[in-house]
Automatic annotation (TrEMBL):
EC class of the enzyme, as a word: transferase
Name listed for the protein in its UniProt record: Hypoxanthine phosphoribosyltransferase
Keyword Plastid on entry: no
Molecular function GO terms recorded: glycosyltransferase activity
Organism of this sequence: Ornithinimicrobium pekingense
Superkingdom of this protein's organism: Bacteria
Keyword set includes Endoplasmic reticulum: no
EC number(s) recorded for this UniProt protein: 2.4.2.8
Reaction catalysed by this enzyme: IMP + diphosphate = hypoxanthine + 5-phospho-alpha-D-ribose 1-diphosphate; GMP + diphosphate = guanine + 5-phospho-alpha-D-ribose 1-diphosphate
Phosphoribosyltransferase domain segment(s): 17-162
Length: 181
């Protein structure tokens, strides 16, 4: 594989910018959860990098679990109908759940996940996402912790993929046009 940086049009966020913003979010989250037993729920696979760095920026211990979901039907991720590929191993009844995501695009995935988790009787469900595209929103979601709001462009890196590639890129950037063609 060629050097991944060559496939980027623009770097939106450097490693340092991501690290600093996650540290700020972690401080904010800890203020709200230091006296609670928080369960971090990561959404596979995009959220892996955010979970790794965000969770380690928390000053205290936090439990972690994972869900994997996929859209039904068309293959586009915007159907809004979601199927669970891997459910939580944890019973979240009475628990304070914090969903950890890499990006909220249309909002359909997270909207469905939140409703699904809320039906299991948790004490609370909040959302922490590194990126959000306000212009792409198809559904209104109340997100308590947002790293960066970004324009409606295709972004990769730091967990975010294009056809499963670029997840391991250290920065977040927009893809160059030659990659599509
Ligand atoms: C991406 C991203 C979010 C979701 C956001 O996941 O990681 O989970 O899409 O899109 P939405 O707000 O329009 O629903 P994807 O379905 O590509 O799976 P992945 O995390 O395995 O890449
Ligand atoms: Mn995802
Ligand atoms: Mg993806």
């Amino acid at each position: 594989a060629e050097h991944m940086g060559a496939d980027l049009e623009n770097v939106l966020f450097t490693e340092e910018q991501i690290r600093e913003r996650l540290a700020e979010l972690a401080a904010q989250v800890w203020e709200d959860y230091h006296d609670k037993d928080v369960l971090l729920v990561g959404v596979l696979r995009g959220a892996v990098m955010v979970m790794a760095d965000f969770s380690r920026a928390l000053p205290g211990s936090a439990e972690m679990d994972w869900m994997a979901v996929s859209s039904y039907g068309s293959g586009t991720k915007s159907s809004g109908v979601v199927r669970i590929l891997k459910d939580l191993d944890t019973d979240i009844s009475g628990r304070h759940v914090l969903i950890v995501e890499d990006i909220i695009d249309s909002g359909l995935t997270l909207s469905w996940i939140r409703t699904n988790l809320e039906s299991r009787g948790p004490a609370s469900v909040e959302i922490c996402t590194l990126l959000r595209k306000p212009e792409a929103a198809k559904v209104q979601i109340d997100v308590k912790y947002v790293g960066f709001e970004i324009p409606n462009a295709f972004v990769v890196g730091y967990g975010l993929d294009y056809a499963e590639k670029y997840r391991n890129l250290r920065v977040i950037g927009t893809l160059a046009e030659h990659v599509y063609s």
